[in-house]
Amino acid sequence: MRGRSLIGLGILALALAAAPFVVPNSYYLDIIIRMCINAVIVLSLNLLVGYAGQISLGHAGFVGLGAYASAVLPSHFGWHPLLALAAGAVGTGLLALLVARPILKLKGHYLAMATLGLGIIINIVIRNESEWTGGPDGMPVPSMELFGYELMRDTQWYWVVAVLLLLSVWGALNLIDSPFGRALRGLHGSEIASQVVGVDVPRYKTAVFVLSAVAASIMGSVLAHYVGFVTPEVANFFHSIELVTMVVVGGMASVFGSVLGAVLLTALPQALATFEGWEIVVFGAILMLCMIFLPRGLVPTLAARLRVGD
Length: 310
Known about the structure:
LivM-like, transmembrane helix, membrane
């Protein structure tokens, strides 16, 4: 791990440690918890899209699989929440492994359409299997138990998701500096060149796709237990687009860009709520300005300008 990455990780750790003591009330703590959950999901998606160059428009489907595993298995079969979370992650990983080879043979907008189709299929199954999932109305999720204690208060959930975010950032920083991470960046640059130097392209593409799906499933389970209720909206197309937008705005192939993009786009709709019906217009205008003046995303663009300034 490089020096700048260590500094960034230290700043993030300090910010996470201070956050619950400076927020004025539980409303803001709830937003920060959702920021942390989104940041881990976006980070997993950035490994696939930003580093490996594989477009995915169905990532919310994997979030939904994890969320509904944590709702269905404890409610209908009496599974322990942690066991249901693990089962959801394993099941999502197996599904991703099954579809990865045929889907990842595609490129560009063909790949985008294939992943979009996968996400839509997952969402339709969740909506139609109303006997198990509650259909469009959703279903309640039992509380999470850790070491015999139920996680009920926002402060308890905050420390859980803060630790998960810190571990995810630390793991991603080490991953991208490893031979695996260098192979992913090579895939993004040129798959043919990567094959020439001995990179097993299908294997690496499959591995990052499965890793990204499993991480999304785990955080979907965390989100479901935190909220206490889950609906099919967690797996819909618009949620997938929101996640991709967080990647792009924060910065493609940037670990800390993933965190910043998730933070900004989780908080922005709340901040724009005072515009009374115009918030979507203002939100879209802000995104357009970001893409015009910060085309590589916030963190990579600002980092490049600071280096030029030096």
